[in-house]
DNA sequence: ATGTCAGAACACTTCTGA
């Protein structure tokens, strides 16, 4: 089965591209980020027409996550992370589909750093780590799929120099990402491409796509029970080059 | 020379966030 994470950068602006992707690739499960839409603006009819069920957690203007499943409706387990009652951002949605737990994650960007947005990012990562630890304790197959807004290693970016002051690459962000992996999660893309140099995001600006100036920030983390079933992982890079594309490409794993 | 998008509003142009 193919499980995808795809930051669409606006579900209403991207619905034609998304339906095209679903039709062509027929993924089994898709985690979406950056819906940039309230719940009542989510184009569920178009998604149903494409043969998918969905659970979504929207928000006006920004953020927003969803989980789609082919031919079925995901069963919601949790929306939002514990640990901050003041946090209104729609960034975490956890569902179950046929015994597989899947969470759609939109981790805070954190720029500019230092500053309150970076502080929020780091605290959010700590809260995610708490949830991730609880999920591992369940000893079931889990996929944490999303835009983590973290460039884990130097070979996960076209240019360390260009990104050195960015929140995506700060030691504090990387330490927390590494700590998450150290709990027992497998970074599926890293396992498949240990040499790095695989991008999931290319900025709209400065001809980044044309220059292949990208980086890897969309990740699929697998619990041991899911990692045992890992067959393949990759990026559907071609979709980044299409008309009206998102700045992210769909990123996926295949599990047995 | 921050060169592009998407969404929203004191809205048809400018701002914010990424």
Q: What percent of the residues sit in helical stretches (DSSP H or I)?
A: 25-40%
Approximate strand percentage: 25-35%
Mean pLDDT: 98
Main sheet strand line-up = 3-4-2-1-14-13
Biggest pleated sheet: 6 strands, mixed
In CATH, the topology is named Deoxyribonuclease I, Chain A
Q: DSSP helix count?
A: 7
Structural class: alpha+beta
The CATH superfamily turns out to be Endonuclease/exonuclease/phosphatase
CATH architecture: 4-Layer Sandwich
Alpha-carbon distance between the termini?
6 Å
Low-confidence stretches: none
CATH class reads Alpha Beta
* Outline type: globular
What's the total count of β strands? 14
SSE order, one letter for each helix or strand = EHEHEEEEEHEHHEHEEEHEE
Based on CA atoms alone, the radius of gyration comes out at 17 Å
The total number of structural domains is 1
InterPro entries: AP_endonuc_1, AP_endonuclease_F1_BS, Endo/exonu/phosph_ase_sf, Endo/exonuclease/phosphatase, ExoIII-like
Domain Endonuclease/exonuclease/phosphatase: 4-248
Site (Important for catalytic activity): 218
GO molecular function, one term: metal ion binding
